[in-house]
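Example record

The entry below shows one chain as it appears in the dataset: sequence first, then structure tokens.
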Amino acid sequence: QVQLVESGGGLVQAGGSLRLSCAASERTFSSYAMGWFRQAPGKEREFVAVRNWNGGTTHYADSVKGRFSISGGVAKNTVYLQMNNLKPEDTAVYYCAARSTYVSRSYIPPSPREYDYWGQGTQVTVSS
């Protein structure tokens, strides 16, 4: 069973930066879309950013546009999230997600239910 392994979370002051990494445990794994969701205590898991490998497109939640940047490896099994100008409201557990089934070039799956592989989560805490 393929696993997604995340790293890079931690504690940072407001205005600081962190870079999250996510890699599939098997090098032969390939996805059609890969990205990040987050979940704060008492809240539902929410979309942060996703890259559609099929169309080469990316999409960001409005709350992180201009501050977060998603990128990935050529093999479509690794994804990164560069987070700049972090705010206390960014505090959450961040989850890497991958979808191994077909996605059309222009479609960005917005719901957690549309992804079939998940990482264990990495905590990001932003202090004010």
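Notes for this example: The CA atoms of residues 23 and 78 lie 4 Å apart. The radius of gyration is 14 Å.
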